[in-house]
Amino acid sequence: MRVTISRKAHFNAAHRLYRKDWTFEQNDAVFGKCNNPNFHGHNYELIVSVTGEIDPETGYVMDVKFLTDIIKEEVENEFDHKNLNLDVPEFENLNPTAENIVVVIWNKIRKKIKPTLNLEVVLYETPRNFVTYKGV
């Protein structure tokens, strides 16, 4: 039996969507108000889901406390109340779009869980705009 467990989390962060190799006008045409040179912020909501076989000894797919600790360490501590462009090394040369953020989060969490478990990350940038990444 494969079962999915999920954990919700959140973080607040600022970012600016732009490409360093484009002019301001090009960036403004593509990213609009998200290209604000003074940045803008979101209250991100995150759902991390892990799918796998139930361990017959524990009854767990994965201890949710362990998943909670991973999210805290890899996401909340690293992204919360940060400027993604300036404070998070992964975005030094990567545009912090919701799509790129969810992939970065997935990669950080993936390293910490068993390879036999499937991982899905859903990132809400706003209550109506969200992205999902399940890996390659």
TrEMBL record:
<feature type="active site" description="Charge relay system">
    <location>
        <position position="125"/>
    </location>
</feature>
<dbReference type="GO" id="GO:0070497">
    <property type="term" value="F:6-carboxytetrahydropterin synthase activity"/>
</dbReference>
<keyword id="KW-0479">Metal-binding</keyword>
<feature type="binding site">
    <location>
        <position position="40"/>
    </location>
    <ligand>
        <name>Zn(2+)</name>
    </ligand>
</feature>
<feature type="binding site">
    <location>
        <position position="42"/>
    </location>
    <ligand>
        <name>Zn(2+)</name>
    </ligand>
</feature>
<dbReference type="GO" id="GO:0046872">
    <property type="term" value="F:metal ion binding"/>
</dbReference>
<feature type="binding site">
    <location>
        <position position="15"/>
    </location>
    <ligand>
        <name>Zn(2+)</name>
    </ligand>
</feature>
<feature type="active site" description="Charge relay system">
    <location>
        <position position="81"/>
    </location>
</feature>
<comment type="similarity">
    <text>Belongs to the PTPS family. QueD subfamily.</text>
</comment>
<dbReference type="InterPro" id="IPR007115">
    <property type="entry name" value="6-PTP_synth/QueD"/>
</dbReference>
<comment type="pathway">
    <text>Purine metabolism; 7-cyano-7-deazaguanine biosynthesis.</text>
</comment>
<dbReference type="Pfam" id="PF01242">
    <property type="entry name" value="PTPS"/>
</dbReference>
<feature type="active site" description="Proton acceptor">
    <location>
        <position position="34"/>
    </location>
</feature>
<keyword id="KW-0456">Lyase</keyword>
<dbReference type="InterPro" id="IPR038418">
    <property type="entry name" value="6-PTP_synth/QueD_sf"/>
</dbReference>
<dbReference type="GO" id="GO:0008616">
    <property type="term" value="P:tRNA queuosine(34) biosynthetic process"/>
</dbReference>
<keyword id="KW-0671">Queuosine biosynthesis</keyword>
<keyword id="KW-0862">Zinc</keyword>
<protein>
    <recommendedName>
        <fullName>6-carboxy-5,6,7,8-tetrahydropterin synthase</fullName>
        <ecNumber>4.-.-.-</ecNumber>
    </recommendedName>
</protein>
